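Need DinB-like domain-containing protein's 3D structure for a figure. Predict it.
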Amino acid sequence: MTSIQEFLADNYRTELTAFRAVLDTISEETFGTDRLGHSPAWHALHIADWLRLTVLGDRAANYHYLGWEDKDWAQAMGTEAAPMTEAGGKAAVLARLEAVGEQAVVYLRGASDTDMQGMTFSPSAPTGERPRLAAVGLHLRHVAYHRGQVVLGQKA
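Structure prediction for DinB-like domain-containing protein:
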């Protein structure tokens, strides 16, 4: 029987692969161009940041692509330089997404049942936190949402 950790790891790998496939179709020249509000580079860095926060529980002070930059909690998480910016170029941005995505998949595959329990920081929840397993599941759908945003942006 497949564990919830294996199920999540496999589904994250599948969704991140699909997201990467869409990003790979975008030219270097337009990768940093805003379409419908954000560039494909921004979407990639956004997902990398949310993977760090939601899946890996990384509370480093170098977040800049959470999409809530006008909120106090997001400003408090972005006091250091971002590990990568949209201006870094397509290859570097995709390498960042790939590296963080792989860390998330490895973490999920090796997570204990205890790691998947309890509450976790979730700024969109009314109380600012939600059950960890629900947060990880919600974020998986979030990756799919941004994959769709990138596709729509290319049609604009």
